[in-house]
Amino acid sequence: MIIPVVFRCNASSRVGLGHLMRCREMARLLTERGHVCAIVGPSEDLREPNDAKLFSRWIPLLGDYSCEQDARDFLAVCREMNAVHAVMDDYRVDPAYQASLKAHGIRFLQQFDASKPWDFHADIIVNSNPYERAEDYAAYVKNPNARLLLGPRYAVLRPEFSALDIRPAGRPVQRILVSFGGGDDLGAIRLTLEALMETAGAQNVTAIVVSGNSNPRNKANENLIAELPKGRAEFFMHPKKVAELMNSCDLAIIAGGTMSYEAALCTLPMILVALAPNQVRPCRGWADKAGAKMLGTIDNVTRSMIRETIEPLLADTAQRTEMAVRGQAMVDKSGGLRLIAALLEEDAI
């Protein structure tokens, strides 16, 4: 039986593109099984050629919608497609919006922002943050039949990571991944590169800078890298083979978003900088559970903080190995499959 599934996704240069990546991967898994997907929210300029295969409809919602209006428009799309299954990957979907979906018979999976606890009416509540515990949600879950899918086992990774031959933990640091999502890096790339240039022991290390098309600082970052000594940094904007690129690195200085799960899978010890409030708790989770180094939020991290964290880590193989092993043990390649199975009430993976 063909099942239509409608996605609500919030993605932009300001918000970042992690939500859209997750939606694309879940849509890929659904369409491979013969189902039909539509996506509501992202602007047309975020569409990629392969999206035509993933989404039968792409419906932008531009401007600041009220949740009430957003819910009405989203439900209209569900009615047009005869859809009763939805994925809400938009942190603005408030309790009233959720209750409206339930009142109209929509079975939905909700990815949410751990920094803003509120009532949940979803059938499946997802948070892949390493810190999450079921008992923390007891006061907020209003759907008695809701399933809580918590922790990195439910992280959705890009499909190219499933084919990687993961390198062993504890390798010497020759390449450092520097990346802060697909949107605005808020100056974190420049700050990190400047710190690396000042770090003792990093003279023979190459920074592998990965940025999305939507980052308004791309040109400035590219100009900065061009001024650095040869071999100190390489710039990759929206690379097609991001998994291979990440797997070629030995350490990661990144934000607390989706890439942190992919870095963990690739046995990369992580130094984390939160770019938004919703990344603080995941960063702390990686620090607590995997030994990652959390520096703080972008507005209070300094070059000296980055330098003083990297320098001893470059010389400490045992610590890097432990960080990498602990992180990799928390992530596998089946998070997306688990979410799809839960949404469609199939056998658990």
UniProtKB/TrEMBL annotation:
Transmembrane segments: none annotated. Signal peptide: none annotated. Keywords: Hydrolase. It comes from the Bacteria. GO terms for molecular function: hydrolase activity. Gene3D superfamilies: 3.40.50.11190, Glycogen Phosphorylase B. This is UDP-2,4-diacetamido-2,4, 6-trideoxy-beta-L-altropyranose hydrolase. It comes from Rhizobium herbae.
